[in-house]
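re: that complex we talked abt at group meeting.

here r the seqs, copy pasted straight from the sheet so there may be weird spacing, ignore it
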Amino acid sequence: MVVIGGGFGGLAVTQALKRADVHVTLVDRSNHFLFTPLLYQVAMAGLAPAEIASPTRSLLRHQANARVLLAEVTEVDLVAREVHTRETRPLAYDYLVLAPGSTNAYFGHDEWVNVAPGLKDLDDAVEIRRRVLLAFEAAERETDEAARRRHLTFVVIGGGPTGVELAGAIAELATFVLARDFRSIRPDSTRVILVEGSESVLTSFGPELSARALESLRAMGVEVRPKTRVTNIDARGVECGGERIDASTVLWAAGVRAAPLGASLGVPVDKQGRIVVEQDCSIPGHPEVFCIGDAALFVPAGEEQPLPGVSPVAMQQGRFVAKKIARQVDRQPSAQTFKYLDKGIMATIGRSRAVARIGRIRLSGFIAWIAWLLLHIVYLIDFRNRVLVLIDWAWSYFTYQRGSRLITGHRLHAGTPGDQLDRQGEPVPDKPLNGLPRVGHDTA
Amino acid sequence: MVVIGGGFGGLAVTQALKRADVHVTLVDRSNHFLFTPLLYQVAMAGLAPAEIASPTRSLLRHQANARVLLAEVTEVDLVAREVHTRETRPLAYDYLVLAPGSTNAYFGHDEWVNVAPGLKDLDDAVEIRRRVLLAFEAAERETDEAARRRHLTFVVIGGGPTGVELAGAIAELATFVLARDFRSIRPDSTRVILVEGSESVLTSFGPELSARALESLRAMGVEVRPKTRVTNIDARGVECGGERIDASTVLWAAGVRAAPLGASLGVPVDKQGRIVVEQDCSIPGHPEVFCIGDAALFVPAGEEQPLPGVSPVAMQQGRFVAKKIARQVDRQPSAQTFKYLDKGIMATIGRSRAVARIGRIRLSGFIAWIAWLLLHIVYLIDFRNRVLVLIDWAWSYFTYQRGSRLITGHRLHAGTPGDQLDRQGEPVPDKPLNGLPRVGHDTA
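got the structure back, here u go
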């Protein structure tokens, strides 16, 4: 069988099949599992990329029935039961699990991709870190007051957990971390503006925690603008709510959509590109194909709201599907209905501030932050990373310093934000490969 | 005064002027100090970039008479006493210290830059890491035996410390770290070939240690080819000594030359572009301008050999020049002759193997490796990095795992080495800046 995607869902399926009588081929275009809940920390120079990522191969080293292929899936042939990739011969499957995840959605404004990067993978995080740090450097060099203000203005679009985390972290970076390092500017004169289309931030946390989050953000100096729609973004700023905001750095956290793979299958998808799946996570008419995680639209029977695009859903679906496949292979009856056990949600807002809903308990402030910290360290996937992240956090907490403040990824390190914004994405080679290796059948 | 370059030399000058009656502007195009002796560890996934780099601004945070500018120097006007940069207005100086360092030299074969990357900065290291890891991934997917062998063949050109460290580290990575992670290939069937034009490797360490290093490399399975000249390199291999070696990954460690800034000044330079400096490190005819480190050709009076391009020379020259300037500013007599105190040299060859010359003592094997380890941890520039590096080394040593095995930096993570080699360097925007800020006078 084949699993597409090595995120929370795909890894959970694969690992849960450890003792099953199957051979799993996990296909991913990235060589590492990424602990996405801490990705914003990499973007804000708090953690190094290697601290929140682990090579998929290492994670599956001891699982003899699993193999990992670094390859990009181009097409799934549901009739021939084959997965096509750019790098290998077609992979035949008897069972297939689709867990390709999600990507940033710009709602028809793809021209905003380069001027307002989103945060989905390590490359995004390093690029955002580069832009944020370069903006402070450009402000330090600048003498024109308007230009300097523009460099020190950061706009975050979208008031969900990612947007709130980014906005809080920029304010914190400027106030605590960078404040003493510059000579010509006061980084704590930084403006951080969080633009959100709906009533408030973190609306999925309910009105009480949403209000607390808003309060915390404002206490940290973040200007929150609810009920505001963005009408344009360019290299020098944002237009929203009829106003023009000059800003060198604009970050996008306003929406995601399913990875494009789902929409290419010819099965029903919603407007965000998610595959509408059955109650057992299978695809309509294809009991041998499952879709889980952010790329699936799962509406529990009798309910109206689909499950949210969060990692616990993907992991629980992964384990459910793995168990179902294992039992089918053993010719045992298998469960027909996936039930999501909602253990709660949390979001951090800055140093010592967070909001959390755990079952019926609602927490905010320092205690929520401690809960958030412990949970994220416990869930980090390997021991070494837990130790390193703990040291880095303790270090940052007590010294107000950050170890990962590196500007990398460009030969010319000293471009102005204007230059950066002209930068195009990396060229993606789109050509056939030299040798097309044959990959095993992977029958269960 | 102005210091150009924030490496070992430039940082030493600046820090040694802490109590002097001067204002120092340190100009660098990178925002971090890089501990280059451990750069090969980043290239070989042993350490993360943030573990060997520290933001220059943080290092100089408490030095009130120093400021840091992230900018690329385009020209030095020795007559007008001004430094021109791409990003700022001209910087006037009374004293100037040039410490721009060195870059890879391809001896007229600039077409080899992309097929055989060198190792000079963090971007290089991450690119080499990407290529090496992708070669193993490509071998895992490959079914054609010749192509697979090509992916598992690594050629390192140059048998100096960097070449020896890289070759040893690749052999080690394949044998110890990756061996258990792959299913279709045996990474320990990897071939590592070290090509060197002269008699042997590490010739600067003297015949005895050179022979020991050769022995160690061969014991680790590295094929060393001394007295062999490279005649061609392309995307699929190397021609050397009349033979063709098919290899997906070729690394360049065969030579460096001074950064181009020196050659642009109109003062005498040697064929490696180094400025021929006086006994006090000043430039002929310009007692107010000094050049130190890799960009300087310093021949001690009465000797024939110039000082080698190693970090202790740069640091000692930096402190000498700082003291000289401080005394001149105080109208005190200053020393006329820089004397280099050679404390020794060391190079590591792999896990538990190194060679070292400390004064007249020659060490090799495990004891040299322990000395190397301790020294490098002690010299790491900040405490946090020392702790992190120590943990990472202990972790790698006892578990045979590496934490930094991430393939990043490309949207398409799964290209074959063939694709990588087509990749061009990042585009360098070459246009005037919007606002040219005025930067302070920096008079002493």
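couple things i noticed - Chain A has two domains: 2-29+71-105+257-329, 110-254+344-422. DSSP finds eleven helices and 25 strands in chain A.
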